[in-house]
Each structure stands twice: as structure tokens, then as C-alpha cells.
UniProtKB/TrEMBL annotation:
Residues annotated as transmembrane: none
PANTHER family per UniProt: LYSINE ACETYLTRANSFERASE (PTHR34815), N-ACETYLTRANSFERASE DOMAIN-CONTAINING PROTEIN (PTHR34815:SF4)
UniProt organism field: Ajellomyces dermatitidis (strain ATCC 18188 / CBS 674.68)
Name of protein: LYC1 C-terminal domain-containing protein
Gene3D superfamilies from the UniProt entry: 3.40.630.30
One Pfam short name: GNAT_LYC1-like
Limits of the LYC1 C-terminal domain: 171-350
Length: 375
């Protein structure tokens, strides 16, 4: 897909803090305009980085290989106060990240498609409560339906269930050994994971995802701790069971983003095979607890754990005395999936959604789909 360039001009008139103002919808294609967007987002979400470091972080992330998918990658959008030279103040912004999708249709088929994840939705504090985020997202949706050629999009959310494990240092001598995952280990594991998911997706309930290597956390760690965590996860000695994690330094948490088990790859349903998986996962969770303590993080967090993972967590709690807290996040943003064209004759089911991965897994059916742009 060639990089689409056309952005339909849209504007709105508001009664702003400086009186009646005309706001223009634009794509931030210049460094100057992008920096204005970064400042708006940094004021809302930049902690613990000061503004100058947050701007450096966003510039750094825009140069990562994964952000250049199909020539589209990350694109920044904004609402500007109308100015004759086009350099007006930015009062609201968001970004889109191009993603490859694996879509399971109502008829049972599986196909690949293109879509976007939307994040960093922020408004200048002086311009909040004026409906600007909704206007901005609707304008972006029009672009995605047209030049963006999106089949679906997803607005980042943190709602759902999570499990927190409190930190201890138990003896792991009776469990299968593990080794750290290094950055260079990730691409091959991702490729294998995607192929396994495609095979499972084509004959089972939809369960497809893709992994986005989190570099933002590494940047924050370099600025705040003077060094970058070298380990991206842990893997067992046979290489078939592994976890990928994210160091969330602002919230002082280690978040497990992806869990892959030997059972997923071999479909081994025997009791003996499940026991092997349980022990392997237990060892990996304890390795994650060690990693959290090493970086002085307060807890280990797992979003939307499966029934199998709940069983392993219960095992770790009983056998090693780990304190576990089950929580359901109900006061955060509503998860929002939007089909291209705003099609409400389909249902979107996000089968697995991991924190900050910005991944999209869709199932289409013929029932009603909620509209994502309700804020």
C-alpha cells in the first residue's frame, strides 16, 4: 500500500477561551507541527519525563522499524487554531498506527487486512469539554474510510480484568529452568507465534494477535534510571513456552503482555502435557517476579488472563505463597472497535487485548456493533 497523502479539509467553530475560534483538521507532517502535538500529549501523559525528554521520546519512536509498516506507520493528526500561515496553535491531537490484521469472518473464513490503532488522544487543558476529541476522531475516521483504506480500527483502552502478583523471592529449584529473552530473540519467536495463531485461527475460535516490541519503556528507563532493561521476557529451556513483558516505570509495574505455551503449539490436551505447561508457566511467572524486584517495581500485572493462566496463578499462590489480587477495571475508557465505513451491521470481538501492544484481533458476525466514537 502506497502512503496515502490526501486529507479532506475539515473545520469547526468553537467558543474557546479566547472567544470564537476556527479550528482546522490537519495531518502533522512537518517536524514543527509534530512537536506541537508532542507537547499537548506530553502535558497529559508524559510523566515521569520532562517535556524535552518526552519530545525526544516521540521523535525516537517515529523512527523505529515497526512504525514504518507498509510505508504508513505512525501518523499524527491535530486540530489547529486557524492561522494565515498554517502554523496556528495545536489544541487537540491523536496518532494512528498502521497494523496488519488477521480477520475471521462470520462465514468462518480467515483473511488478512489493513487497519489502524488510535492512541495519544489529548486536548489542551484550556480547550477541554468542548467536544474536540470527538470531532478529531470523526475526522480521522473519515480519512481511514477513504485514503487510509482501513478495514477496521481500534481505540486504545485499559478496561477489563487483570491480576496482580505481589513481590516475593521464592525458591524455584523444583521448577523447569528458564532463561531471559533478549531483544534479538523476539523476531523469530514472533514469526513462529503468528504462524501458530494463523493455523489455530483458521480452524478454531478466533485468537489472532501480533506483538509490538515496546521501545517507549526502554526510552523512559534510560532517562530515569540511566540504563535500559536488557531482558524482554523469559523462555523455558525447550523454547516452546515463553512470556514477553513490559517495564511500566511510571506505574512501577511489570506487565506481562504475551504468554505462549507449548500446548498452543502442539495442542497437547493430555493431563501430563498440561502439568508440564503448568510448571513451565509457574517458573516463568516467578522469573517475572524476580525481574520486577530487580528494577524496584512494585508488582507484576497480567491483563485478561486465560483460564489456563488463572490455574497457574492459583498454583503459584498455593505453592509459593505469592499474594494475588484479582481486579476488574471498569472506570477506564470503553474498548472501541470500528469497522471501515462505520459499518454497524457487524460485531467486533477483541479476542485477546494486551496492554500497550496496540494489537487488533477481530471476529465479524451479523449482529449489532457499538460505535466507537462515543466519548
Amino acid at each position: 500500500m502506497d502512503k496515502p497523502e490526501t486529507v479532506e479539509p475539515l473545520s469547526t467553530i468553537i467558543d474557546g477561551p479566547e472567544g470564537s475560534e476556527v479550528l482546522i483538521f490537519n495531518e502533522a507532517t512537518t517536524t514543527e507541527l509534530q512537536v506541537k502535538c508532542f507537547k499537548i500529549v506530553g502535558a497529559s501523559f508524559g510523566w515521569p519525563l520532562p517535556e524535552v525528554d518526552y519530545i525526544e521520546r516521540e521523535k525516537f519512536l517515529m523512527q523505529r522499524p515497526l512504525t514504518h509498516s507498509n510505508g504508513v506507520g505512525i501518523r499524527w493528526w491535530c486540530l489547529q487554531v486557524q492561522g494565515g500561515d498554517g502554523s496556528g496553535r495545536v489544541v487537540a491531537t491523536c496518532k494512528t498506527l498502521n497494523r496488519d490484521l488477521l480477520i475471521r469472518t462470520a462465514a468462518g473464513g480467515t483473511r488478512e487486512g489493513q487497519g489502524y490503532c488510535i492512541g495519544a488522544v489529548a486536548t489542551d487543558k484550556r480547550y477541554r469539554r468542548l467536544g474536540l476529541a470527538e470531532f478529531l476522531l470523526r475526522a480521522v475516521a473519515r480519512w481511514m474510510d477513504g485514503a487510509g483504506e482501513a478495514e477496521a480500527s481500534m481505540l486504545y483502552s485499559s478496561i477489563g480484568k487483570s491480576v496482580s502478583l505481589c513481590l516475593i523471592s521464592p525458591n524455584r529449584s523444583g521448577l523447569p529452568p528458564t532463561q531471559p529473552l533478549m531483544p534479538e530473540d523476539i523476531p523469530a519467536l514472533c514469526a513462529r507465534d503468528i504462524e501458530n495463531i494463523k493455523a489455530k485461527f483458521s480452524k478454531d475460535k478466533p485468537a489472532a494477535d501480533k506483538i509490538l516490541m515496546t521501545t517507549g519503556a526502554a526510552f523512559i528507563s534510560r532517562k530515569t534510571n540511566g540504563q535500559v532493561p536488557p531482558f524482554r521476557g523469559a523462555i523455558n529451556e525447550y523454547g516452546k513456552t515463553w512470556v514477553y513483558w513490559h517495564h511500566d516505570f511510571p506505574d512501577r509495574e511489570l506487565t506481562i503482555q504475551r504468554v505462549v505455551t507449548a500446548a498452543q503449539a502442539t495442542e497437547d490436551k493430555e493431563d501430563e502435557g498440561q502439568q508440564i505447561v503448568t510448571l513451565a508457566l509457574a517458573s516463568l511467572l516467578l522469573a517475572a517476579l524476580d525481574e520486577a524486584q530487580k528494577w524496584k517495581l512494585h508488582k507484576l500485572v497480567i491483563w485478561n488472563p486465560t483460564a489456563e493462566l488463572h490455574h497457574v496463578i492459583d498454583f503459584v499462590q498455593e505453592q509459593f505463597g505469592v499474594d494475588v489480587i484479582n481486579e476488574e477495571r471498569v472506570n477506564s475508557n470503553v474498548p472501541s472497535v470500528r469497522w471501515g465505513g462505520g459499518n454497524e451491521d457487524k460485531t467486533s470481538e477483541v479476542v485477546v487485548y494486551h496492554k500497550r501492544i496496540l494489537c487488533l484481533e477481530l471476529r465479524a458476525s451479523r449482529s449489532h456493533c457499538h460505535h466507537p466514537l462515543t466519548r
